[in-house]
């Protein structure tokens, strides 16, 4: 997450609906009513001879499990499952491989990620010429006049210089271009796009946004001109001219992203949607009806998805789901945020607020405390998304107040150098990505990726949380904040499930739960724990192999 917002980040409250693969039931409520399989009948599948990490503290490891009707019938030693083997039961010999519960990515933008996969990929590019080359390649494969879209660039990787339209104008004379930064807070337009949108040196900055301009009398201009870079709300000046993504494109994007998630062992995602400040709240509802309901009713869902809708539209959910949770809508005034939060909490909704910097986190913790005191005790599971930079003592408050810290370990890899520049060495070295401190305070950690800001990659996120070594560094960033393998796995499985009230259905390999699991390449727990190059061999959703 970009450190250009160090204090008060975007604030969000959404409501959720859950959709699932391979079945015809539309809403999670129906699934919660399903019965635990009876052992009176045999298993469909017995998985045996492995090292199964369950994420269940009452029974941490097993070597075999029996599955029927998509749920775990029994888990333990192979000998204890023999009575469940009958006519038609298949057996899968793991041959000593490590198995973990299906990973839950607690924060993604699924359709946006799928769309980005088919566009100009600039993630990880660390020099200007490569940006130009990739844009030029896209132009050669595009129709004249069509939009060239892409993103993922990070100017910190090439020394910090912000890109300009002049970088790409020569290779894009007939095509408008829009390239978003990795954090989604700014984008680069070429001169064709600026002209199409009518953005000139006379265009005023919109509220909450900025049109970056050249300095007066620089080497290229005798007066200030737009550089092509637009920040936050100013992005809408260009975005409003980009043709709406078609229904078919959005459907393909969701399926593309789902398939990719399975390759990474992700079986459930929390999708916060395509909504961003300044955009239409209708995007979330259009995606629900055009994409998710279509995929659900036609049996095309590949992974489990928890959908979130902007708070301002929460009443539309009642015909579908009578136990909503929430996440989303940016709020600029604290009083408005407080009123929205207290009303949402009073209605029994789960509130999640995005806060990156120390001031923002303290402000939200203060507000959560006030709301809880006013509305009374209940199981509310307030969340703070990101929680990246905390003031001294703030980590303890998460535990004292029972707040969920929904964090993205791989942001640590991109933020390290920028954090030191923007926060100063002392603050960056004492208050950044305090995973161990949060756990020690009895806060709950839920791991996610913020895909497509970073790719969904739980195995890498787990290693990042364990090692904390950014690119180009020889030592760890705040080594005292290392997590153990066990703690990191828990954060991407059962804790992530608990963070959205799904712990009774997913998140651990326990009797009665949905049989979502991942077979890893490691031949032993020691090999996995010592940091060998582990990859995903296979992903199962509801006891059915979904990848490869």
Structure description:
The protein is α/β, with parallel strands linked by helices and 548 residues long. The radius of gyration is 24 Å and the shape is globular. α2 (110-117) packs across α7 and α10 (358-375) runs parallel beside α11 (394-401). The longest helix has 18 residues, at 358-375. Helix content is 30%, strand content 20%. Strands 4-3-8-22-23-24 form a six-stranded mixed beta sheet, covered by helices on one side.
In short:
The chain has 548 residues and is α/β, with parallel strands linked by helices. Helices cover 30% and strands 20% of the residues.
Rg, nearest Å: 24 Å
CATH class of the domain at 39-102 and 509-547: Mainly Beta
Q: What do we call the CATH homologous superfamily of the domain at 39-102 and 509-547? A: Urease, subunit C, domain 1
Task: Give the class from helix and strand content and strand pairing.
Answer: alpha/beta
CATH architecture of the domain at 39-102 and 509-547: Roll
Strand percentage lies at 15-25%
Shape: globular
| Low-confidence regions | 1-16, 22-35, 319-332
Helix/strand layout:
Blueprint: E1 14-19, H1 28-32, E2 45-48, E3 51-53, E4 61-62, E5 64-68, E6 71-76, E7 90-93, E8 98-101, E9 103-108, H2 110-117, E10 120-121, H3 128-140, E11 148-153, H4 165-168, E12 177-181, E13 186-189, H5 191-197, E14 209-213, E15 226-232, H6 236-239, H7 247-263, E16 266-271, H8 282-297, E17 304-310, H9 334-346, E18 352-355, H10 358-375, E19 383-386, H11 394-401, E20 404-407, H12 411-423, H13 425-431, H14 435-440, E21 444-447, H15 458-467, H16 485-491, H17 494-498, E22 517-520, H18 525-529, E23 536-541, E24 544-547
Helix pairs in contact: 2-7, 7-8, 9-10, 10-11, 12-13
């Amino acid at each position: 997450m970009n450190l250009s917002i160090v204090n008060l980040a975007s604030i969000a409250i959404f409501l959720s609906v859950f959709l699932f693969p391979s079945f015809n039931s539309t809403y999670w409520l129906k699934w919660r009513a399903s019965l635990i399989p009876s052992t009176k009948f045999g298993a469909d599948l017995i998985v045996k001879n492995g090292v199964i990490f369950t994420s269940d503290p009452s029974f941490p490891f097993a070597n075999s499990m029996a599955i029927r009707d998509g749920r775990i019938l029994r888990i333990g030693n192979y000998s204890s499952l023999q009575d469940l083997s009958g006519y038609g039961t298949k057996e899968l010999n793991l041959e000593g491989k490590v198995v973990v519960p299906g990973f839950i990515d607690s924060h993604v933008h699924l359709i946006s990620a799928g769309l980005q996969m088919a566009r100009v990929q600039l993630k990880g590019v660390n020099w200007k010429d490569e940006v130009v080359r990739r844009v030029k390649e896209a132009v050669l494969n595009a129709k004249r006049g069509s939009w060239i879209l892409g993103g993922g660039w990070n100017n910190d990787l090439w020394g910090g210089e912000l890109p300009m339209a002049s970088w790409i104008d020569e290779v894009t004379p007939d095509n408008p271009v829009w390239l978003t930064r990795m954090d989604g807070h700014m984008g680069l337009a070429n001169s064709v796009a600026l002209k199409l949108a009518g953005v000139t040196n006379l265009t005023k900055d919109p509220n909450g946004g900025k049109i970056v301009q050249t300095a007066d009398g620089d080497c290229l201009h005798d007066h200030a001109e737009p550089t092509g870079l637009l920040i936050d709300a100013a992005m809408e000046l260009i975005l409003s001219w980009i043709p709406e993504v078609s229904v078919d494109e959005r459907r393909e994007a969701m399926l593309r992203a789902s398939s990719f998630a399975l390759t990474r062992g992700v079986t459930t995602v929390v999708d916060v949607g395509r909504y961003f400040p300044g955009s239409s709240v209708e995007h979330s509802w259009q995606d629900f009806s055009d994409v998710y309901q279509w995929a659900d009713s036609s049996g095309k869902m590949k992974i489990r998805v928890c959908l979130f809708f902007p708070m301002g539209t929460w009443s539309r959910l009642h015909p579908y789901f009578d136990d909503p949770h929430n996440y989303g809508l940016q709020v600029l005034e604290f009083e408005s945020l407080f009123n929205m939060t207290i009303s949402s909490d009073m209605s029994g909704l789960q509130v999640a607020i995005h806060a990156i910097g120390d001031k923002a986190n303290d402000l939200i913790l203060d507000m959560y405390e006030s709301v809880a005191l006013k509305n009374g005790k209940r199981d509310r599971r307030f969340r703070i998304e990101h929680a990246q930079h905390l003031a001294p003592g703030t980590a303890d408050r998460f535990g004292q107040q029972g707040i969920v810290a929904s964090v993205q370990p791989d942001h640590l890899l991109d933020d390290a150098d920028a954090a030191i520049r923007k926060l100063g060495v002392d603050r960056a070295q004492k208050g950044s990505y305090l995973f161990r401190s949060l756990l020690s305070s009895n806060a709950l950690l839920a791991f996610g990726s913020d895909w497509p800001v970073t790719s969904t990659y739980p195995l890498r996120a787990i290693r990042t949380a364990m090692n904390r070594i950014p690119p180009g560094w020889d030592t760890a960033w705040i080594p005292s904040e290392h997590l153990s393998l066990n703690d990191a796995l828990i954060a991407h499985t059962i804790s992530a499930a608990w963070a959205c009230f799904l712990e009774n259905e997913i998140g651990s390999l326990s009797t009665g739960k949905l049989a979502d699991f991942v077979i890893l390449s490691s031949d032993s727990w020691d090999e996995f724990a010592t940091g060998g190059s582990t990859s995903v061999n296979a992903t199962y959703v509801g006891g059915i192999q979904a990848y490869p």
